[in-house]
Target: Glyoxalase-like protein
Amino acid sequence: MIDHLVYATPHLEATVADLARQGLGTSPGGAHDGLGTRNALADLGGGAYLEVIGPDPDQPEPAQPRPFGIDGLTAPRLVAWAVRVDNLDAAVATARSRGHDPGAARDMARLRGDGLRLAWRLTPMPATVPAVVPFLIAWGDTEHPSLGAARGARLESLTLAHPDPAAVREQLAAVGVTDIAVEPAPAPALHAVLRTPSGPVDLG
Model:
């Protein structure tokens, strides 16, 4: 199932304010210490959420580039998405047996604004964005971020685009995704439509 969509931005506060003007409220997430990033979250229903992620001005410049190509962004962009699994190691092994290697799992954690520590495991975040093939994530016993995220929005649709849709569908099937549309396009792209009380919000 879809765990979350990643909407990366060069200016987190400005993007959060712009989304609010469109009718999409978010709640503060937390800082990713050492990565130089911070996020804000919106519940999308069905156990999914939107992560708006950008540079954290309260952290020093990280030793490595920020994830999701944030350092090179000039405008907000939907860059990646994640699929939630119960047993990450088993899901990685299954995907590899089906011809797709999601990469080795790693541990991550952050402190929520109220001090609660969230910990999770995930396969590598994409080196090139936008990434139409999802990374995998498992939350274990940690409270899922969607439970504390701003409510009111719903994920209406997620569409993937790629020059080789057939190859992408094979990779999606390897991680258990068979119900997401993949359209032909000159370059990889992600597009989501979120339904809010004020109307639809398009993210691309």
In short: Residues 2-151 form a domain with the 2,3-Dihydroxybiphenyl 1,2-Dioxygenase; domain 1 fold (CATH 3.10.180.10). Helices lie at 12-21, 88-97, 165-174. The mean pLDDT is 94. Residues 12-21 form the longest helix (10 residues).
